[in-house]
Give the backbone structure.
Amino acid sequence: MSEKLIKNNSYTFTIESLCGNGNGVAKYGENGFVVFIPCTAKDDIVKAKIIKLAKNYAVGKLEEIITPSPSRISSGCPHMAQCGGCSFQHISYEAECEIKKNMINDSFSHIGGLDLEISGFVGADSSSRYRNKAMYPVAEDKNGKLISGFYAAMSHRIKEHEDCLIGAEIFSKIKNSAVEILENLGISAYNEETKKGIIRCIYMRKNTKNEVLLTFIVNADTLGETKEKALCDTLTKKHSEIKGILINTNRKEGNSLLGNSWRTLWGDEYLYDTLCERKFRIAPGAFYQVNHDQTQKLYYIAKEFADIKEGDTVFDLYCGTGTIGIILAEKGIKLVGVEISKDAVKDASENAKLNGIDAEFICLDTGEALNTERLLNKKPDVIIIDPPRKGCGDDAVEKISSFGANRIVYISCNPQTLARDLVKFKSCGYEAEKAVGVDLFPRTGHCECVVKLTSNKNNI
Ligand code: SAH
């Protein structure tokens, strides 16, 4: 009989591995009872107190690092232990890439039972200051003073912070100025419990030229003409990077941060950015990848895998604002994009025009779109898919496969649903030929993977 753990007692553990959420995994006793200990690194020897004891696992709170792991670094982020954003601020970037590489390969073998490994993992040149988008929730502290920062891990409690190391430096500067001005103007913060108060979130986006679009997400239609003018005057005088200031009205009680109604208070309502030598218009509410430089690397790999030739018909499914299809498109191809969000489709059409590319965009669920005459009467040579985290699902995979394209390029932000969908593709006649991991989200538990699938009917 192995010794049992007791809640609130402290024990010494050796960390054997790290999960994607940054929790270290240790084993206890003869039967290897699993203990998760946040903020630890593989090979750390630590003292931890058992704060949760479930049937199959326990959770420990780190009390002391007895012997630090060689991969441990001093984080530099004072909020690492509380913030729900990053998982890997405390280990070297090389160790993080190794974990992500294994995470993808493990999904292929354990979930998919696939004989597939990534042929490379493309790490980032810089693991800090890469995010071109920031969403800072606003609240009042116990004295009624405005604070803004991040949500504590697994909660909706807002913690104040001065800076976020993975976000652009300019975001923190503008956020801190904005909070001060809002406070001086006497604008209250929205309270999730009472459903009262005005300002919910300070939301920013920037392009590679460091131009910023600043949005105040509010539980109101207006902040009042005088206050809105004072806000714009002060902020634009102080931060020349601001190119536009907008109000987004969100009166919904749930967790969704953005509402549907937008109003421009000052300057531009869009940003323009260059990605893979193409120009894109980005509406503040539309999907746009948050790591510009790594996205370029990802899309160039997708371009190589797609190997598009003149005259090809290309489907870009889950196309967002049309970025991938437009980047892959050369003159003389027929491009058809499918996307469920109306706003994104509007941007996609505009972006195709901006780049002189002939394209057709369909605003529908992918599965439904593939059943419409508009698509059924086309014969795609290449299909690009870039679904959200839940993946495509069996029905969509069957429909995609039934078009008989030579190649499918699957871009995924979730190795688990990717592995599941690859198994289905295999049963529909598509073999994964090559896969590469790309780290679009350094320091967090997420990464992307791009896979080239070829029809095994080509080999007959
Ligand atoms: N390819 C784009 C966007 C990828 S994000 C890019 O790289 O920028 C995934 C996109 O899928 C989002 O724009 C989302 O709105 C869209 N989407 C989600 N579910 C969908 C569905 N069922 N059918 C079509 N599009 C969907």
Residues 38 and 66 are 15 Å apart (CA to CA). The mean pLDDT is 94. The longest helix spans residues 93-111. The two ends are 58 Å apart (CA to CA).
